[in-house]
Amino acid sequence: MPELKPLLEALARSTQALRDADAAFRHPALTPAPDDDDDDSQQPR
Amino acid sequence: MTTIPSSLADAAGLIERRELSPVELTRACLDRIAARNDALRAFISVREKEAMAEAARAEAEIARNAYRGPLHGIPISIKDLVDVAGTATTSGSAVPPRHATYDAHVVANLRRAGAIIVGKTNLHEFAFGTTSDETAFGAVRHPLDPARSPGGSSGGAAVAVVEGMCLGSLGTDTGGSIRIPSAACGITGLKPTLGEISCEDVVPLSTTLDHVGPMTRTVEDAAILYTGMRDGAVTLDDRPPALDAPVWLGVPTAYFFDKLDADVRARFDDALTALRRGGHGLQDVAIAHAERTAEVYLHIVLPEAAWYHAPLLAAHPDRYSPGVRLRLEMGGYILAEDYARAMHARAALRRAVDRALEGVDALLLPTLAIAAPPIGEASVAVEGVQEPVRAIMLRLTQLFNVTGHPAIAIPCGAGRDGLPRSLQLVGHRGGTERLLAVAAAVARQITGGAGSVGGGVG
Lengths: 45, 458
Hints:
The complex is a heterodimer. Chain A is mainly α. Helix content of chain A is 38%, strand content 0%. Chain A has one helix at residues 4-20. Chain A is rod-shaped. The termini of chain A are far apart. Chain B is an alpha/beta fold. Chain B has a single domain (1-458), classed as Amidase signature (AS) domain (Amidase signature (AS) enzymes, Alpha-Beta Complex). Helices cover 40% and strands 16% of the residues of chain B. Chain B has helices at residues 8-16, 22-40, 48-63, 105-112, 155-162, 179-185, 219-231, 253-256, 262-277, 293-315, 322-331, 336-356, 389-394, 399-403, 432-447; strands at residues 43-46, 75-79, 88-89, 98-99, 116-121, 169-173, 188-191, 211-216, 248-252, 281-285, 362-366, 379-382, 385-388, 407-414, 420-426. Chain B has an 11-stranded mixed beta sheet with strand order 1-5-2-6-8-7-14-15-11-9-10, with helices on both faces. Chain B has a two-stranded antiparallel sheet with strand order 3-4. The interface between A and B is medium-sized, with 25 and 35 residues.
């Protein structure tokens, strides 16, 4: 299905973004950076 | 000719006092459907004979003092994604439907509470879209402007409520499909806490993101219908209690306010002003990683939808709408590893929303970043920038499907275009009843509790 090609290209970018967020989401096999301690916490603006 | 009351609660009060006949009320709703459905396509099927028989039974029960509660004798509609015994569940598709021999659990609960089912409403095919125009039964039309979409996927359910074709609708919400059409049409729509209301015998879009919930004209009506869906028994005591203290609300400013139509922003600011004037507390909060919501959502909804549809796609590929079919095909290209990655991220997002809720009663944000979009448009301009319609419509709602927090859309006035705008309140997990009480207080403050703004009921 040729119509699928641009959608799959967009999906590939989205997948890469999700993989790139492994550290932000604290992938359990990654050592958190020292300043990531409160990464999930509320940060009043 | 019977006048249809402006709310479910009003109708319930009249029925309990025997000042309104369920038979006459149901007849009036069926007449509204007959008058307007060809133009608006809110309903796929109408249960005229069955509904009138159910209304006659309800009336007879009430006459012999067997009143069951505020849903007894009330005409409602069911999204055609949900099994109702003796009807086809079309899911808005030309794919062969399943034929229900018994009611879905949530429908059985509503029947036990005495509700009358007038028909099954139109939707975006298989609930996989936000505009209700990809459906085998004709695009659902917005009541205020037939060239516009009422939102979706529960578009027919919203139109049915606005038009007085019923006094409440059952909708489903996987990324915003109750709240988006409720916002676009100016009514109230509740997505309860994940798992609170059974999704058994509801055609799934995404087995871990799907929710069932009520769509009504007021918060009070939503509370009544929610309790009936959950428990099968409801009394007027299930209406949200009046709170004896001001509410405290967190406004998650980052990400959620980056892309908003100017009138959405203006009505939201008006609501903040009204809430401050009423003595309610407001504070800015942040939800960590909210900007990554779309990626997480996509890597859950696509593979889960692809799983359910795999055998149907193999057997009937050409019966699907082209856009829905493409989205379903995409799901087959996601690796199991990335699905697991998204589920891990989901837990982090859940914690982030929990933390944003610490110390506040609810979060307050807009429901829908734009007004009801023109039917057939792939993109819309938001503050001068073209945005894909589907992505911009899901932007403010899908996070709370991922995290499972209860969320409710309530109308907050109209834009300069005359189209409704909406606020969203998000409560603590497991705190749907408290959220309804907070929403009732907020609605009273910003609109005087007037309920929907989407159209008239005759």
